[in-house]
Amino acid sequence: MSRTAWAWIRIAGSAITLTVLVWRLGTSPFLDGVRAVDGRVLAAAAGLALLTTVCCAWRWKVVANGLGVDLPLPAAVAAYYRSIFLNVTLPGGVVGDIHRGVSHGRDVSDVGRGLRAVVWERSAGQAVQVVITVVVLLVLPSPVRSSMVPVAVALVVAVLGAALVARAHRPAWLRVRSAAAVALASVVVVCGHAATFIIAARAAGTAAPFDRMLPVVMLAMVLMVLPSIGGWGPREGAAAWVFAAAGLGARQGVAAAVTYSVVMFVASLPGAAVLVVSWSSRLRAADPLEPPLAREPADA
Known about the structure:
By secondary structure, this protein is mainly α. The chain has twelve helices and no strands. The longest helix is centred in the middle third of the chain and has 29 residues, at 111-139.
């Protein structure tokens, strides 16, 4: 399938999901989600976003260094903020990651290795998220708890298979200390995103206890990886279904997802500043000031 066709499928899927939600629930959950945003929620989201972005950048640095390419942590943090901003504002949710990998690859004169570092880094983070989600859904009551045992068994088999493949074709970064650092950073990132979603849900009016909220949030976050337009569509659809299945109401799920979307967008705005600065630097480098013309000597 061509990229153009896949892009149109994402756009159509997101538009259909949002249309169905508005048709069934009206616009009030969306408006309630926007109205729930205030200074305290934004401050909490920005603080958690800083923590998770630094951890993501550290994870990326560990993987990149293991693959033999240098990546200073301050540069990684700035590039990761830019990547998040592009991901939440452009269709697909991965444009920022591609840009991050290509830019880093050009900086180290190895675009292929730069892209591989991003792929390994993101894959590791998503794998840890899936493991944490399965554990939470096994331990705490959730709408899908009865189905989690076979899922857990399948996950164990998948992990063992991945371990065998990694042993045969082990990436350079997959040493014990490096893998532990990547896993630790990923755990902090997942916890930070879950905390942000719970804060958003509380602000939108969900008053369920923490042990009831956490499985719902974790399941919704896993489903948010579906193709979308800047995250919109599948995120609200997933939250509506999960919240309704947990007895918290589809409207409440949509409102929580909208609040989460707004605060995450605001928290990503430092990435817009990084993008403007990088564009300005490239423009100055491409169009240097011409030196003044030397004055010709006067005729004798």
